[in-house]
Design goal:
With 185 residues, this protein is mostly helical. The protein has one domain. The chain is 54% helix and 9% strand. The chain is built from nine helices and five strands. The chain has a three-stranded antiparallel β-sheet with strand order 3-2-4. It has a two-stranded antiparallel sheet with strand order 1-5. Strand 2 and strand 3 form a beta hairpin. The protein is globular and about 45 Å long. The protein starts with a helix and ends in a 9-residue tail after the last strand.
Length: 185
């Protein structure tokens, strides 16, 4: 029974990351471009502007295999760590949900602008401190989505790094690990 327990593993346990911390200057530049795009969308889409900008910010990192337009321009990429492949839309929404919350705070009647500014200050401070102090540059959204922002050149051979065993584990279910020879103990 104890060997069965040792071989049972819950998917989602982080095994660390093989990728180095991405440049904070490149990440900041990419975020600035994405915020500029969201601002242009907000201004150009009329009454639906807030919703369109929010949707762009939430889904942007899953658009081009882990790269938003800003990340593509600056050469950084969001990688979903269990499969070592570019972030999907689900991962993008999870990792960007703290920023979505700030935009939703800005939509509150009577508190709108004050709530937005307070949210930006509080969340911005938390995220910046977390990114700087974390050895891999992970922020809160990255922890929730199990992602990491990497230098796009480092992960260019991502197909070689992903293994079928890792992809099977990424389904969110507990998997029974078997020894390489296929025996069950």
């Amino acid at each position: 029974m104890s060997s069965f327990r040792k071989s049972l593993r819950v998917v989602g346990e982080s095994e660390g990351s093989p990728y180095p911390k991405a440049s904070l200057i490149l990440r900041g530049g990419a975020r600035a471009v994405d915020l500029l795009i969201a601002w242009v969308l907000y201004l150009s889409t009329g009454p639906a502007g807030v919703v369109v900008a929010l949707l762009y910010l939430l889904f942007a990192d899953g658009m081009l295999q882990g790269q938003s337009l800003g990340k593509k321009l600056f050469g950084v990429k969001v990688v979903y760590l269990p499969t070592r492949q570019g972030a999907r839309h689900r991962d993008s929404v999870l990792r960007n949900s703290p920023f979505g919350l700030v935009i939703i705070l800005g939509m509150m009647p009577e508190l709108g602008l004050r709530a937005f500014i307070a949210g930006c200050v509080v969340l911005g401070t938390l995220e910046v401190v977390k990114v700087i102090r974390d050895p891999l540059g992970l922020r809160l959204g990255d922890l929730w989505a199990n992602t990491q922002v990497t230098d796009g050149k480092v992960v260019s051979g991502e197909g070689l790094l992903a293994s079928p065993q890792r992809e099977a584990r990424a389904t969110g279910r507990a998997m029974l690990e078997r020894p390489p020879d296929g025996r069950t103990e």
